[in-house]
């Protein structure tokens, strides 16, 4: 009123008009469902071929969001990523996405030999065709940045590839390794990742491809509190955790945890391996036993057991090693 020298009625009318123009119109659940049906491609999924997990995720790894794999070293995160790479590059006639894959191999764990073995054992009818193994492997572009800054420089090129080429999957294995390297140089991990989180989420939304990111684990500080179930809670008796059955939590902190839409936890307990759906907008917390064979990860039971309480986010690892501990 003072700046424009107008009355209260005029100012209120202007604010009301601006608010209506700037705010998105409200939508009902029915209208959103109708839009989803009309634009079915926006609700696509990359099937993992793990029946119980695909059912829990309503079809598999969803397009347009960040999906995170968390677990200790050697639990099977890279094996999972290799299998997803095979599935994304597999011809559509065999249930794949018939596309290319951008694989960010931070820890130099990508193995083309293992990739072809997984493909040949899982889809012998495809890989037995002459030249098919070479063609499938040729669809996977592997980048190996040595630092977070080098990764940052390549992101714009990656974005262009996702939007202009037939890229159907982006894998970052692992984001925690990039962040830990930056943390060792004195750069706060949370601050250094803020821009990358926003960039990856925007790329996922506009390119409509599944983005899978692996994360490492860290020991839980005794003074940490539980804010959200998928973040992990304080153990009531920290003396119970032994060297052979320890409770760990995901690295990278709460800002990162909020940014991922799906969090899958891989853990080892009582001599068996399990995969948990710890965070998902379409599924309750579930856990499935699995094993790793020549064909990759396979579920031992397609009927997931529902979890409650702090065990949803606790990460068990018998005889674990190589646990990173850096500032969140």
From TrEMBL:
Domain RecA family profile, residue spans: 42-217
GO annotation terms (biological process): double-strand break repair via homologous recombination
UniProt KW keywords: ATP-binding, Nucleotide-binding
A Pfam family the protein falls into: Rad51
Lineage: superkingdom: Eukaryota
GO CC terms, sorted: Rad51B-Rad51C-Rad51D-XRCC2 complex; replication fork
One MF annotation (Gene Ontology) recorded for this entry: four-way junction DNA binding
Entry-linked CDD domains: Rad51B
PANTHER family, per the entry: DNA REPAIR PROTEIN RAD51 HOMOLOG 2
Name the record gives this protein: DNA repair protein RAD51 homolog 2 isoform X3
Gene from which the chain derives: LOC116201966
């Amino acid at each position: 009123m003072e700046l424009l020298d107008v009355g209260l009625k005029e100012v209120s009318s202007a604010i009301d008009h601006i608010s209506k123009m700037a705010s998105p119109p409200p939508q009902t659940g029915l209208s959103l469902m109708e839009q989803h049906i009309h634009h079915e491609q926006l609700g696509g999924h990359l099937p993992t071929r793990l029946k119980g997990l695909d059912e829990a995720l309503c079809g598999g790894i969803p397009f347009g969001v960040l999906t995170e794999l968390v677990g200790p070293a050697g639990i099977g995160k890279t094996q999972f990523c290799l299998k997803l790479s095979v599935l994304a590059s597999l011809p559509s006639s065999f249930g794949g996405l018939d596309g290319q894959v951008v694989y960010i191999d931070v820890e130099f764990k990508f193995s083309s030999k293992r990739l072809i073995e997984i493909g040949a054992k899982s889809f012998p009818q495809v890989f037995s065709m002459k030249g098919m193994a070479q063609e499938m492997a040729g669809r996977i572009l592997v980048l190996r940045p040595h630092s977070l800054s080098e990764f940052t420089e390549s992101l714009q090129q990656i974005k262009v590839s996702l939007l202009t080429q037939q890229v159907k999957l982006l894998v970052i294995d692992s984001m925690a390794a990039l962040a830990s390297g930056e943390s060792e140089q004195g750069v706060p991990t949370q601050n250094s990742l803020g821009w990358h989180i926003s960039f990856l989420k925007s790329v996922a939304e506009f390119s409509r491809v599944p983005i899978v990111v692996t994360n490492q684990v860290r020991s839980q500080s005794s003074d940490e509190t539980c804010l959200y179930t998928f973040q992990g809670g304080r153990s009531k008796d920290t003396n119970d955790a032994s060297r052979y059955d320890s409770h760990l939590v995901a690295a990278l902190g709460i800002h990162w945890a909020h940014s991922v839409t799906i969090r899958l936890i891989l853990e080892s307990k009582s001599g068996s391996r399990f995969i948990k759906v710890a965070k998902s907008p379409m599924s309750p917390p579930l856990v499935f036993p699995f094993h790793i064979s020549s064909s990759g990860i396979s579920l031992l039971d397609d009927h997931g057991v529902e979890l409650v309480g702090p065990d949803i986010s606790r990460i068990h690892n018998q005889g674990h090693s190589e646990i990173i501990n850096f500032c969140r």
